[in-house]
Amino acid sequence: MLRLRPFRLAxxxxxxxxxxxxxxxxxxxxxAIVVDSAVVFLAxxxxxxxxxxxxxxxxxxxxxxxxxxxxxxxxxDAEAVEDVVASAFAPQQLPSAVRSVQTAASVDGRRVTxxxxxxVPLIFAAAIPGAIDTATVATSASATARGSxxxxxxxxxx
Length: 158
Known about the structure:
The chain is built from 3 helices and 3 strands, in the order αααβββ. It is an alpha+beta fold. The N and C termini lie far apart (110 Å). The chain has one domain. 39% of the residues lie in helices and 20% in strands. The chain has helices at residues 19-61, 65-71, 78-88; strands at residues 100-108, 111-121, 134-144. The longest helix has 43 residues, at 19-61.
């Protein structure tokens, strides 16, 4: 009768312990990428919210009463729009995640458009030699002042 012996693997001389430092390094790098991406996303969201608020405030504050009461047309004062946007993005009021901001506001009839470009410092990427230390975030928002009639086609302050 044939007797079967249990199958045994050859002894393993390697060690998985040598792979642990490499795995930890990979996880730390992925964590750094996640943190930097979260900082950029947060800054983009904050700038977008602030641009939307500035556009809405501009549409309300820059309403030209004289034009409306003279002929019933809704017009926005471009200088007042610029003032509102400048005060919304004053350096002392910038979100903490944003280093610097450039704004542009435009008025087209009843419509206000606010465009914002911000510079966001990265936390972990700055520690890598030769890597970028800032990310650029761009967003825009617009608001329209409501009114009666087809005053969109009328040129205000021409």
